[in-house]
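Hi team, as promised in this morning's meeting, here are the two structures we talked about. I've kept the exact order from the run log so nobody has to guess. The first one is mostly here for context; it's the second one we should focus on when we meet again. Sequence first, then the predicted structure tokens.
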Amino acid sequence: MATDPVLVVHGGAWAIPDNMTEAHRQGVGNALAAGWRVLEGGGSALDAVEEAVVIMEDDETFDAGRGSFLNREGKVQLDALIMDGATLRAGGVGCVERIANPVRAARKILSESPHVYFVAEGAERFAAEHGIPLCRNEDLVIPREVQRLREYQAQPADAAKSDNDLFAPTISHDTVGAVALDCEGNLAAATSTGGTLAKAPGRLGDSSLIGCGCYADNASAAASTTGWGEPIMKLVLAKWAADRVASGSIPDWIAAEAINYLKDRLNGHGGIILLDTNGRFGIAHNTPRMAWAAKTVKQESAGIEWSR
């Protein structure tokens, strides 16, 4: 029995400034269009989320791919995960420095490796061996982020720790992600990020960890999160939300409940998109704004959602 496809994407949850809202709106809209072309043509949810995320990795507006935050050594280190709800197969990469589209490498791992996760040089070696071109790390660095890191590191240590907490919602959390339901009734999810500003080299966030920043299971739901990674990891938030959908709850309710749980338990902040096999989806965040877009066969919506 054919299913009506659904696609939901996000481009981060934080205090998106007024002068950046249009770029975010256009960015998530472009990602939605790319993923929808796949679904509209009868393609898989897995292909759809991959193509949607690639668009945002290539868009310097977001903290994924080129234009990502720099770590304290001035390098881009990227993480990504993609997961197939039909088989529970997944592919993830962490701390890669020479892959412009880490979600592509993650997809290769899912499709062509018995393993689930590769990191650093091992991930880059696997990618190169499977036809994904490597780039120089310098190719992923843009002047805006060089200046942002320089300004942050120039602050007094106590000021950096208090007034400009690295994990505060006023500092960008432009992690990107997508969840999709295809015409075969299968779910998929993908999440990609450059992590946090001035992070320690080798730091891994929630985005590329199964059940934390990304999860998909046809028996429950597909989810992608964004925000402060450490609390999201501790709560395994994407899996937590999916499990509650499996118990019969509506994704819209559970998305809001998940973000409340994040706040109440660990004072965390961020956002989540959640989709079930009935095509019902939820979007929630506790940051000032969140960039998102969604499309079904009946309607399309995209924009910057303010906190409710």
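And here is the second protein, the one for discussion:
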Amino acid sequence: MSVGIDEISFYTSNYFLDLRTLAEVQGTDPEKYYQGIGQIKMGMAAPDEDVVTMAANAALPLIERVGGDAISTLMFATETGIDQSKAAGVYVHRLLGLTSNCRVVEMKQACYSATAAIQMACALVARQPEKKVLVIASDIARYELDTPGEATQGCGAVAMLISANPRIVEIAPEVGNYTEDVMDFWRPNYRSTALVDGKYSTKIYLRSLKQAWENFRQVSAASFEDFGHFCYHLPFSKMAQKAHQQLARINKAGLSAEQLEEQILDSLYYNKIIGNSYTASMYIGLTSLLENCRQNLAGSKIGFFSYGSGCVAEFFSGTVMEGYQQYLHTERHSKMLEARSEVSYDEYLALYKHPDPRDGERCDIPHVTTGRYRLVSIVDHKREYIAL
């Protein structure tokens, strides 16, 4: 049975900081960011935006097409959850008008959980082919100011409709997994920003890629040469280049540096101007590939490497379907990105330091976002969302 991604859409905030501005304040060369980590801009969430509002905005185009009644399950992947008990997806369920018979669950394992959600969604659809599962990944990447991670911040959400006979990408059942208990990146409950050992995390990422690939080769007949393009988890765009070069070396691929770059380049475009979106990053990368690649990808096999610090990693594959172009939301995404507003460094600091009440006091939140959904207030520890 053919199961996979029937539709895909993403959302990011209407604010961004150009990393040239950050470099000027820090007294460093902008190329440290533009070339060194491959990032140009970082998305900054508005005060009335969070993982819930971004998720609902990302999923809206899909629900407008199929209707809320078509969704049997909503799987919400995030590592910046807003509640230790209630799934963020339950709020999204109401905002999107999904049926009361739709199950909702939140999944967490750093940046990997969206991939787990997709694999579980494919299994559900394989069991009941008439069902459709909505997978949403939504995150806001935040690090301490004046740390190496600051320039890799960002925000975004991606929504994917998983169904039988998918119109965009068929997901193959063979996967290669790797899990190891390490402390390369983590965020304790009492912190709003993550802790990261950057060099160690890069080392673990690359080790996990090797191990997941070797496991994939044990269960799949596909070889490196069978893939036309690759999508990697993108904490920053340069990481994909490092990963792909390593995978090529492992497989003794006889490709030039330019040919290797062509296999990943189109998947990096959106990430470069959005920044890290944690669970959503690889799938926003997939959207970028599908919408920006000038060649017809129909029939092309894509290799996916999903990595979540701590760590869990997975390599799997998908095949692009004939006629996929007519089911993309390219124009909608282009207009969203073009309409974003650049912020000054002082405005960036104001967004970064905007109050996030934690002791239950009333907080009415100003209307700033240009999205369809917004966080209105926090009262008695309860978050109130509305659709505009």
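Starting points for discussion:
The chain has a mean pLDDT of 97.
The CA atoms of residues 167 and 272 lie 27 Å apart.
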